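Task card 7
Instruction: Convert sequence to structure tokens.
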Amino acid sequence: MAITMYTSDRAFVTPREVASVQSAQNGDTSGVLNRGKQLKITVNGLTATVDTGQALILGRLVEVVTPTSITLPAHSNGKLCIVIDIAKENAYVGHAGKPDYYPTINQVYLAAVTGELIQEDINNGGYIYELPLATFSTNSTTGTVSQHNPVFNDTGWIDLELAHRSTYNPEAYARYRVFNGICYLRWYNIACFNSQNGNQVFKLPRKIKPHVKGQFAIAGSNININNGNHQFCNFIVPDVDNPIEVVYGMWGSTQDMRLTGATGSGQYPLGGDF
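Output:
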């Protein structure tokens, strides 16, 4: 057969075709859904336990139904991953379509990866995809993890809490949105001149901080509420390891040192590998 259509009368559709469609509809991205405990990781000695939650990995829906543990290798650094390996065979008991049928899924598991990640296109001839949930570091007896779930959802626009003593001018707003692992920030006409240093705009929840080292800069402007003039400036988004909990403005020494109408928008991917 040279051509076929899976979603047609009397056609036979397998998980492969469903996953391909779901992956394409979501930009061939992968991430953790807002379900259960969102795969929260805890560590006791060298044992890491992943709590309940779901992830969509290139169209494959994966769920940790009950907390699941894995032993981390001693004296190592790496990433704790959910791994899909479609080259493995699933097992089953009973008869398909009958009450006694029950599959054992061997094509997904947790793994502590100490080398380079394998992320093949499992919808286009590949077999293995490793989705990192956290980085880990161990000695002979104990380990630590830094979790940075790649977020996969569309939160819609959510209001941000303003920095201490910053206020809204008329028609002002400060919001964020996470869609397919990308965080979008958007704010308009925020009065910051009474905040610390006169430049703190809004608080940045840790879950939407960039996971790369270093500060992320967004180009924006300050609106002078007295005359309507704009002055260009940069807004700094601190990374997840930075103790600073606010987005703040920076500008040239010849400009007004107080933000009377902070305005800007930008985006960045969430997760630790970009």
